[in-house]
Amino acid sequence: MIGDVAGLEAVVGAPRAAVLGKTIHALDDGSRRVLAASPAAWLGYRDGTGTPRTTLVGAVHAESPTRIRLELPPGAVGSVSFVFLLPGVRETLRLNGVVRAGDAVEVREVFVHCGRCVLRSKLWEPEPTPPGADFLAASPFVAISSWDADGNADTSPRGDEPGFVRVLDEHTLAVPDRRGNGRTDTFHNVLACDRVSLAALIPGRDELLHVDGTASITDDADLLRTMPVGRSVPHAALIVRVRHTEIRRNAVLPLLWRARSSTVDGVPDLMRLAVAHAASNQRGALRAVGRGLAGALSDGLVRRGMDAAYRRSLRDEGYSSE
């Protein structure tokens, strides 16, 4: 079992400065356009009893670069976190903030999350689910909410082949960790605060499976070998001791599934947005280079290169390159 930061980073590596450098602390124009176009976002929050919750919410409005507004679930307080989905788009936009009066949220962090989890899950390519199939066995995509020692929230997407969240026994789940954006926010938070929540969806269905419990991190080789993709074995897994589960209908999901068949107009390429965020944190010549890369993305050159890199990376892990 992994119990400290040194042990964690020995297995998954330390967060890279280049990745952390893509974080901005207010909504830029591109981020505001993403929020305006997103029909649904994962929300991680704690309710009035301190219980961690993860769910899907609908429209989120950007009132200013540092403030958003939405219809928050009853009792949502303190630090909250979001993952914004764009139908048909691989990358997601993550936002962390703090609840203020009147369903307003003060923006603290904004960053683009890479598209591997969406590609692994084939989120936008749903197949019919057999009636009565076990929810987790049919789910290719979940969001996990966690909190650090200071109570700051983070919600992270996870996607893979259906059934990738393993049921070890009636009270224990295992979520394999594969290569992603390299921030390892969830793992670092769990080392400081073990309470987590997750929500799972099945493409095309209007229900969410909600789970809350406590989590730990394992690098147990015997367990990890049971969760391969091709020849690729995850380097670690999140173990969730379940305290409560329920399946609930979610009014936002039908909007998300309807929207996936339409074109998302007026939204910047999210990889271009990530480059712009990184450039905004640089100075002088480095900022100019970043802006140049963002311009190249607008011509589609880097976008095509990134798509090729995604395919190559997933093929190396054992996934289909299609």
Topology overview:
Layout: H1 5-12, H2 17-20, H3 29-37, E1 40-46, E2 52-57, E3 61-64, E4 67-69, E5 77-85, E6 92-99, E7 104-113, H4 116-121, H5 135-138, E8 141-147, E9 153-159, E10 166-169, E11 172-177, H6 185-192, E12 195-201, E13 207-218, H7 221-224, E14 236-249, H8 253-259, H9 270-280, H10 284-298, H11 301-317
Antiparallel strand pairs: 1-2, 1-5, 3-4, 4-7, 5-6, 6-7, 8-9, 8-12, 10-11, 11-14, 12-13, 13-14
**Rg on CA atoms, Å:** 19 Å
User: Biggest sheet: strands, sense, closure?
Assistant: 7 strands, antiparallel
CATH topology: Pnp Oxidase, Chain A
Which structural class best describes the helix and strand composition? Answer: alpha+beta
Q: Please provide the count of β strands.
A: 14
Task: Count the domains.
Answer: 1
Percent helix, as a range, is 25-40%
Please, what is the average pLDDT?
87
Which features characterize this protein?
Pnp Oxidase, Chain A, Pyridoxamine 5'-phosphate oxidase N-terminal domain-containing protein, 322 residues, seven-stranded antiparallel sheet, alpha+beta, 11 helices, 14 strands, Split_barrel_FMN-bd
Written overview of the protein:
- Helix 9 (270-280) runs antiparallel to helix 10.
- With 322 residues, this protein is of the alpha+beta class.
- It is built from 11 helices and 14 strands.
- The chain is 29% helix and 32% strand.
- It starts with a helix and ends in a 5-residue tail after the last helix.
- The protein is globular.
- A hairpin with a 2-residue loop joins strand 10 (166-169) and strand 11 (172-177).
- It has one domain (5-317): Pnp Oxidase, Chain A (Roll), CATH 2.30.110.10.
- The protein has helices spanning 5-12, 17-20, 29-37, 116-121, 135-138, 185-192, 221-224, 253-259, 270-280, 284-298, 301-317; strands spanning 40-46, 52-57, 61-64, 67-69, 77-85, 92-99, 104-113, 141-147, 153-159, 166-169, 172-177, 195-201, 207-218, 236-249.
- The strands form 2 sheets. A 7-stranded antiparallel sheet has the order 2-1-5-6-7-4-3. It has a 7-stranded antiparallel sheet with strand order 9-8-12-13-14-11-10.
